[in-house]
Hints:
The structure holds two protein chains of two kinds. Chain A is mainly β. Chain A has no helices and eleven strands. Chain B has strands at 5-7, 10-13, 19-24, 31-37, 44-50, 65-69, 75-79, 88-95, 105-106, 110-114.
Amino acid sequence: ILNVEQSPQSLHVQEGDSTNFTCSFPSSNFYALHWYRWETAKSPEALFVMTLNGDEKKKGRISATLNTKEGYSYLYIKGSQPEDSATYLCASNNAGNMLTFGGGTRLMVKP
Amino acid sequence: GAGVSQSPSNKVTEKGKDVELRCDPISGHTALYWYRQSLGQGLEFLIYFQGNSAPDKSGLPSDRFSAERTGGSVSTLTIQRTQQEDSAVYLCASSLDWARNTEAFFGQGTRLTVV
Lengths: 111, 115
């Protein structure tokens, strides 16, 4: 089983702050890195699927970067809003095999 | 339906009883996962089905857990002789094809409580 780690485990920010968190994953036999957003009482929903080194994806105020050589990805949220409060999960797909999830970063945005 | 459907949404069972959890993936999705989230923990991988290949059962925590996927579609996760530590939210996800690196779609989960 792969080792996918996320940091920090939890994060409190004020509304309007920009924030970022990290996902580290094995770089060997890399296929794809996924980011999901998991709101309380809902099921996880995909934000990004990234495959290429140097890839950068953006959806509204959320963006992500990928470094496959060193095995890390950053998720950025610009101008956090209370509705951004959720757990953000990353998952690595290595060797075209199953997805292995990290423990998540729980983000709480205070109004 | 259009999404991944899981049933039941909630299940309370007595310790020692068997339970069956059901997952209906999105039609045409060849990959299907079961995960669980225990209180305060992250997503724990249980089992993975990909097409007609033998399932990856490496995440099943004990031989009380088993899963099958009939006809490449519906999957059932069975827990025999449930224990209190089995209490968790069990999530199912499906994807079109892992080789194409498409996103996973999750069901709403089954909250299992063993009393």
